[in-house]
Backbone:
């Protein structure tokens, strides 16, 4: 009988499905090698990290990531709340657009915050980003949808801005103000929007902007 060669994927799959395997079989740890200190290649002279130290290091790294994410979310939440208060205090649609384009980028360390519309009259009046309707519809999807991803350069949404915009968040606005499909866009030169950090906060802010625009829909 020919024995099947066990692949790494099979072992990983087994361990993921049996997370208590080493707890229930502690003696096997004496026969298992663990990561080498200093990332050296394995040889007989290399010093192997003890299982305890290996676990502790991974737990420390995990805790650091949790703390870093919590701090990032706290700071972002604070900025979102401040921005919402500022938006609610604005009493005309022109100043809403000015706030979006000039104040929000500085507050969130972004290069671009703006609205993309195929309404040329509105675009010229408020200095918004004009794109043909077919370009917008390629992104729009459904209203109130938020996408956070790398920039699709073929759409050329951020053409004309200084420096290349690498990642973006795109929110599909309802038709209450523009009467056509329009987008609220956030653009960054970095990887700001690639890991969905603060997704709920950006979605909340976008909803507030949309509701505020509704209130000026007759202007």
Residues:
């Amino acid at each position: 009988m020919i024995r099947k060669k066990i692949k790494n994927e099979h072992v990983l799959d087994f361990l993921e499905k049996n997370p208590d395997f080493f707890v229930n079989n502690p003696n096997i740890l004496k026969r298992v090698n663990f990561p080498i200190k200093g990332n050296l290649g394995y040889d007989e002279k290399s010093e192997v990290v003890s299982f305890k130290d290996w676990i502790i290091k991974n737990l420390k790294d995990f805790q650091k990531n949790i703390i870093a994410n919590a701090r990032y979310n706290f700071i972002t939440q604070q900025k979102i709340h401040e921005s919402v208060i500022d938006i609610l205090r604005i009493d005309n649609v022109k100043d809403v657009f000015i706030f979006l384009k000039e104040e929000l980028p500085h507050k969130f360390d972004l290069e671009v915050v703006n609205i993309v519309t195929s309404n040329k009259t509105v675009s010229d009046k408020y200095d918004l980003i004009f794109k043909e309707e077919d370009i917008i519809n390629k992104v729009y999807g459904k209203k109130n949808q938020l996408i956070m991803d790398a920039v699709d350069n073929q759409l050329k949404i951020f053409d004309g801005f200084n420096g290349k915009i690498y990642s973006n968040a795109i929110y599909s606005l309802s038709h209450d103000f523009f009467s056509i499909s329009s987008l609220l866009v956030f653009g960054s030169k970095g990887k700001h929007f690639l890991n969905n950090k603060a997704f709920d906060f950006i979605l909340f802010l976008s909803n507030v902007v949309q509701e505020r625009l509704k209130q000026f829909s007759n202007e």
User: Anything to note?
Assistant: The longest helix spans residues 51-89. The beta strands are 112-117, 129-130, 146-150, 167-173, 182-188.
